[in-house]
TrEMBL record, chain A:
This is Xanthine dehydrogenase family protein molybdopterin-binding subunit. It comes from Larkinella knui. Residues 19-133 form the Aldehyde oxidase/xanthine dehydrogenase a/b hammerhead domain. Signal peptide: none annotated. SUPFAM superfamilies: CO dehydrogenase molybdoprotein N-domain-like, Molybdenum cofactor-binding domain. It comes from the Bacteria. InterPro entries: Ald_Oxase/Xan_DH_a/b, Ald_Oxase/Xan_DH_a/b_sf, Ald_Oxase/xanthine_DH-like, AldOxase/xan_DH_MoCoBD1, AldOxase/xan_DH_MoCoBD2, AldOxase/xan_DH_Mopterin-bd_sf. It holds the Pfam family MoCoBD_1. GO terms for molecular function: iron ion binding; oxidoreductase activity.
UniProtKB/TrEMBL annotation, chain B:
Pfam families: CO_deh_flav_C, FAD_binding_5. InterPro entries: CO_DH_flav_C, CO_DH_flav_C_dom_sf, Diverse_Substr_Oxidored, FAD-bd_PCMH, FAD-bd_PCMH-like_sf, FAD-bd_PCMH_sub1, FAD-bd_PCMH_sub2, Mopterin_DH_FAD-bd. Residues 1-227 form the FAD-binding PCMH-type domain. This is Xanthine dehydrogenase family protein subunit M.
Automatic annotation (TrEMBL), chain C:
SUPFAM superfamilies: 2Fe-2S ferredoxin-like, CO dehydrogenase ISP C-domain like. The lineage of its organism: Bacteria, Pseudomonadati, Bacteroidota, Cytophagia, Cytophagales. Residues 21-97 form the 2Fe-2S ferredoxin-type domain. This is (2Fe-2S)-binding protein. Keywords: 2Fe-2S, Iron, Iron-sulfur, Metal-binding, Oxidoreductase. It comes from Larkinella knui.
Amino acid sequence: MTPYIGKSISRVDGVAKVTGKAKYAAEYFAPDMLYGWVISSAIAKGKITRIHTEAALQLPGVVQVFTHENRPSLAWFDVNYKDQDAPPGSPFRPLRDATILYSGQPITLVVAETLEVARFAATLVQVDYEEDDHETALEHNLHRAREPKSGVASLLKSPPPKPRGDFEKAFEAAPFQTTGQHIHSVEHHNPMEMFASTVVYEKDGKLTIYDKTQGAPNSQMYVSQVFNMPFSDVRVISPYVGGAFGSGLRPQYQLFLAVLAARELKRSVRVSLTRQQMFTFGHRPATVQNVSLGATADGTIDAIRHDAIGETSRFEDYFEIVVNWAGMLYPAPHVKFTYNLVPLDTFTPLDMRAPGGVTGVPALEMEVDELAHKLGMDPIELRLKNYTERDMNEDLPYSSKELRECFRQGAERFGWASRNPEPRSMRNGHTLVGWGMATGIWDATQGPARAEAVLTVNGKLRVTSATADIGTGTYTIMTQIAADTLGMPIEDVIFRLGDSNMPLAPIEGGSWTAATVGSAVKVACEALGKKLFKMAQKMKDSPFADAKWEDVWFSDAHILLKTNPYAAVSLLEIVGQNGGRAVSETATSLPNMLEQRKYARAVHSAAFVEVEVDEDFGTVRVTRAVTAVAGGRILNPKTARSQIIGGMVWGISKALEEESVMDHQFGRFMNHNLAEYHVAVNADIQDLDVIFVDETDTIVNPLGVKGLGEIGIVGMPAAVANAVFHATGKRIRSLPITLDKLL
Amino acid sequence: MNSFSYARPSDIGTAVDELATHEGAKFIAGGTNLLDLMKENVEHPNRLVDINRLALSTIEDTEEGGLRLGALATNADTAYHSAVQSRYPLLSQAILAGASAQLRNMATNGGNLFQRTRCYYFYDTQTPCNKREPGSGCGALNGFNRIHAILGTSDQNPETACIATHPSDMCVALAALDAVVRVTGPMGERTIRFADFHRLPGHEPWLDTTIQPGELVTAIDLPAKGFPEYFTYIKLRDRQSYAFALVSVAVGLEIDNNRITDARIALGGVAHKPWRKPEVEARLVGQSISETDFAPIAEALLEGAKGYGHNTFKIELAKRAIVRALQRAAKLEPQV
Amino acid sequence: MQTTLSPETRADLAPSLPQKQAIKLTINGTVHHLELAPWTTLLDALREYLHLTGTKKGCDHGQCGACTVLVDGKRINSCLTLAVMKEDSDITTIEGLAAENGLHPLQTAFVEHDAYQCGYCTPGQICSAVGLMNEGQAKTIDDIRELMSGNLCRCGAYPHIVDAIREVMHIEPKS
């Protein structure tokens, strides 16, 4: 039996998705279910002086209108409102009081018998405000920048490393220098599925909640702590998630509101947000960054400085790793990195696909490209000249790093060798053609997780873990890992996730799920295998009576002696000895910290992009792109390719289209819909190619895998911007590169 | 969305009566813009008169040698109609540059004329907008106005200021083609020249068109002259498809023996209505296509243009688009 | 500063509910009789009243294509039409595409090409692709890309979506 790991298995949840049978949070029904409609604040700062709910309450079909004035008493302490991804500070509490903290803040929930009545009733509610002056513009408040507060979240997100060497002196002495200020706007995740929670009020007052989340246990914990309910009374289910990209790492306010209404009214309630309301919670924060590089004539980068100022809310200090990447990518001896925050009257930013990485790395990689141009050096050659096998921030060797091979194979596939380095050297009529490349990097991490493996009486293997599949392919790769570990045909393996009753797994994010949950699935299946082996040993005339665990292996749903393939016992036969009951094991996998701490662990990529720019109009089209990834062991090339392609599409979208534009008169995002917040459409995407270079890593985790969820996007924005520079000779340091910036 | 009643008349007379007898009623055909705006609480008709049963979906020749587009023919059926494709390819090109295949299957020709602006402030009921809420002010004037108008704006009086643009692609081509809108109302039938159909904001920015209350568009007549040989529609936007125009240009030329004998140039995305200047177009007549410098024509068309900050780039962009469109229409450039 | 910025309200709108009426919808060959007020969109009728949740709500404003269904064989955005307006039409949703045994060729191709990730836009993509094929206007890869641009895929599966459709339409990869 050949292993499933490494094979291009079609998604095990594919048929459910193409037939419409896969059910998302707003697609569950309960008898007499009510619908909630959220009313959002019109102002950015101030307080509510009055909410006129009379007209709405008079409307037939309206059951209740919840505001800060009639909400029940809830948990008092901030700690109760902290979810697993909460940054330091005081989490936002919906309907807490009359205070308005940001435009779009949920201030009222109208609950009615139907969706339409709730929607109409919401228009009948009038709100009076007392408005205060707000500050929402990062660029006007840079003088207020300060260091981020530290907290639990800082454990996963390292602050900038201390300066090394003497940046100022080295930079001044450098014969070749580049300096650039890089800015980009706020972006919103905008998964296709809008946030929704369906709260089913059970007869005994327990809640079964279908929630859009990247971690069912996270939502369970939040609800139980805020509403003072035992964990056992709150079950959160989330088998399918219509995209999230980080937006589901924190419980969103519709969960709070739906639970509040269900408990107060003792009825099931569904609250879905509108697309406009998808712009009223976390977002990728805008940043202003300065990057300076100093190099010698041979291209040795001696000095690097990267400073970033990001925005956060007034109540929490969201921060991300923006400036540390240079120390992981280049071995310059003189470096200085700073990262500061400006609190504004907005909602707290939130991790969004490759948070910080796709903010900081593009700024760095654009300046590296600029440096190559100034040096008259090929951009790949410059990167090879400054290649490092060590993470200079941690002063540790990489557990594996095949970035060099990414450069080589990516360049070959793309045809980089025939590039004329001169900007504006390729033209076809009004169309300027440019080729650009950039490096990508993201952490390869592993956390603790639990999984349960069950051999059913029918001889099927059922594995569960309370992780999520936000489109990443978790269902499929876990099924493959489980099938291989116990030598089962994949049709006989079922993997289930997204239920807080299942063994605990962390929120799905940071590209750690394959490593984290995959390792848990492996150890749970191994534990089950050992149990089955012991049972087999006790069977009458067992061929394993004298065998040790090391002497057997699993294949074709049998345990076999390695030395004698005819000495085999089928798993079905073993479970048959269990008195009509299934056999199960639950196990926890922990990262091997002792070993891992000796190494830096990261996934790398090289992105190559061709653009066509209309010289007169400034319109940019990415005509082809190649990304080569060093991502450890590839569990499933088909779903892995989709992950990288998806990241590349995001990268193009970020580089050319995406920005949430706030009108600071009102402190409000104005293009809050999918017609005006542009994400890439089908016609924006031409030929994309993905290469996975061979990379063996025995340190990073027992499976040797590195997550692929973020790496696809990290290199792309700079590769696009560098290609635009090559095409036009214009270095655009403000993303997205819309046509007006190239006119 | 507010509460409303629903009627589905089967003949034009009843439909017109419906509006005459119900104040606050509105016609609905494709619904692609009206329902969108009702969900945003921008529009709140108390009665919807569904006109989809009326026999207004045909596309047929007129006695004058032109083509009559039924008001209820969909945008898709119109764009792909063989007579439109062969005799009015400019119109076909413009329609297909707009919206998505799904929306074009729903949206009707009549409805397209009533598309409302995409101005962010018009759509967001929590911000001021003189078009939506007369006298409330214009949020865009000093706000985020990247998609806004540069020509024919109203910006002097805060209570009537409006720098919104008309969002349609189809209408830009119809303007270039000198189409005629046929309407039926309480006072009977009448026709409106396309140039007179949409209006500038002036002192009444809440009015998009010159149609009278209760009037129903029944057809759009295209004159015989369709510029099937020399034409182009250029649409510049923030992504390759499914985005509104920042600037668009429709050009139709007639060329005889290397000389321009007739010229039409209409601009989209720059004003409250498709923008034309016949006196500037006339300057092209008699010119040799290979020797004419189109830049002064572009300059003249943009004369008086005014930027409001974020949208100032449109002035230069429009000029370049006009030059390219003229070159393309004259076949000095590939159509792409 | 005292301000009254309120959700749009109008004095002429007395808070009363619209009349429900009997509505007949033919969906996937089955006639459904419903009592609905005119303000129910086709999308909400499918999802909330008939529990046919295969058709997705991604924006509710015709800006994403997730709600695409086929009405008399033509693809439309079901969020921007009222259920009452589609009484005489044959409506096909993702639930009605598959043959008795097995999948529609496009469904099979989407699985084979991994033409999705989260799956939320997928029913709309597939219905849209069926509509695209019915229209007969797409001859090349670029045509497919343009004519499928009314269906956003935030996961970015576009290249695979195009591969799946292209294969079913027998269009060459480099056309």
